[in-house]
Amino acid sequence: MAKKVYTFDQLSKTIGEDYAWRRKELKLVNDLVSNNPSPKQNAALRFAIPILYAHWEGFAKKSTEIYLEFVAKKFLKHSELKSQFIALSLSKKLGSLEIKNIEEKTKTIDFLINEFEKKSNILTTNVIQTKSNLRYDIFREIIFIIGLDETKFINYKGLIDDLVDSRNNIAHGEFLKVDFNTYQIIFNEIQELMDLLKTEIENSALLEEFKKSV
After folding, report:
1. CATH 1.20.120 domain range(s) in the chain
2. Could you give the CA distance from residue 133 to residue 54 in angstroms, rounded to a whole number?
3. Which of 98, 130, 181, 205 could form a cystine bridge with 134, CB 3.0-4.6 A?
């Protein structure tokens, strides 16, 4: 990642800049879609869907990576963090342990206890994976990794999955007639979703929700 994100202001600025250029480009694309039925409208609707998906996937990946880096750069003690951040910090060490019997399990518990008050070293590289098909179950994994509340996003499940299916059909050369009114709904709701994700990340950073509840 080119920019280093250490403070809330840096996080908000970096996410805001990424959000802004995507919103601007999406508006330009949307302006090319005429509301008058015609072959030109059909073509515009078909190319608009993959671009809409690309910006949604891109923003979801970029913004959550920025937040993960923000948390990592705090270098908080494991005892101060939510469990998923502890898991990211200790994943390499835990992966090297062999847990076959009670003796090994006891050593693992001792290891965790000894690590609890040490500073974290949270992994950030290749942690956020959209798998080029950002269905809701994958998005759900991502927001779990960074500790966001899934209930804020569950109502968008159908939208997210439908957008992936439509993008895939068009990208694979299949004919998919896109209804203008349906497209407008998807266009508006995806921007609502991007806005919600941005807000939830910023709120989580500001309120330090990455910390373990006392």
Report:
1. 8-75+121-206
2. 10
3. 130
Q: What is the 3-state secondary structure of 46-97?
A: HHHHHHHHHHHHHHHHHHHHHHHHHHHCCCCEHHHECHHHHHHHHHHHHHCC
pLDDT tens digits for 110-138? 888 888 899 999 999 999 999 989 999 99
* Closest-CA residue to 41 (of 32, 50, 54): 32
At 172, the amino acid letter reads: H
Residue 172: what are its φ and ψ, rounded to 5°?
Answer: -90, 10
Q: How far is CA 74 from CA 35, 78, 96, 119, 157, in A?
A: 49, 11, 25, 9, 32
CATH number for the region 8-75+121-206 comes to: 1.20.120
User: Average pLDDT of the chain?
Assistant: 91
Q: What is the pLDDT of residue 96?
A: 59
Distance in Å from the first CA to the final CA of the chain: 32
Cα 91 to Cα 97, 103, 117, 119, 131: the distances in Å are 10, 20, 16, 14, 21
Cβ neighbours of 85 (radius 10 Å): 25
Q: Are 115 and 78 in contact (CB under 8 A)?
A: yes
Q: What confidence tens digit (pLDDT) does each residue in 158-190 have?
A: 999 999 999 998 887 777 788 899 999 999 999
Q: Output the pLDDT for position 4.
A: 75
* Spatial separation of the C-alpha atoms in residues 45 and 28, rounded to whole Å: 13
